[in-house]
Specification:
73 residues, 66% helix, elongated
Length: 73
């Protein structure tokens, strides 16, 4: 079966339009934004896991994610 999206595509398109009304969006622009966000989350998780490993922690804590976010930025 297919996974249900957490947020419908129209919601994402409306958010983009609300923040940047002057932009003309291509048909699949919202999918590219969603993909970019998922890739960011994946990289954030990898960095946070590496930070937790460096600190000899078995669980990823918020401090690890915050340090990882500063590295990715």
């Amino acid at each position: 079966g297919r996974m249900k999206r957490a947020a419908p595509r129209s919601t994402l398109r409306n958010l983009i339009k609300r923040h940047k009304p002057q932009l003309r969006l291509a048909a699949n622009a919202d999918l590219l934004v969603h993909l970019n966000f998922l890739l960011f989350l994946h990289r954030l998780a990898e960095e946070a896991r590496a930070n937790a490993f460096e600190n000899k922690s078995k669980t990823i804590k918020s401090e690890h994610a915050m340090v990882a976010a500063k590295v990715i930025k």
